[in-house]
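Worked problem 6 (solution included).
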Amino acid sequence: MNIDDIKKANAEAGLYFFSEDTLRFFSSRTGTTVYGVFRSGTPGGQYFITSERDDCNSPRMFTVRRYDPVTHDISTVGNFKEYKTSQGAAKRAMRERDREQATGDWKGKED
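Solution. The predicted structure is:
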């Protein structure tokens, strides 16, 4: 599953996470890498990164997100704008993916 598949499924479910208005309101950009969980040929959570900033003078901050392939909903993993770098967010996304792959469960917050 890639980010375009996630965007399409979210929109087809009548959800607005990726709508132009939503992205503009949060000055949000969506990364292209998806860190996916796969079990028995069916997808689990699909993790990706967004970046947001408050205004043109503010630094861009990064948020880890999780797409649910059953409900098509997007959840924030941890805190909104938690990371100063995309690399820090990517490490968290991979850690969450690995945990969900191993346990079949996801928590969304650090233990």
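Discussion: The longest strand covers residues 42-52.
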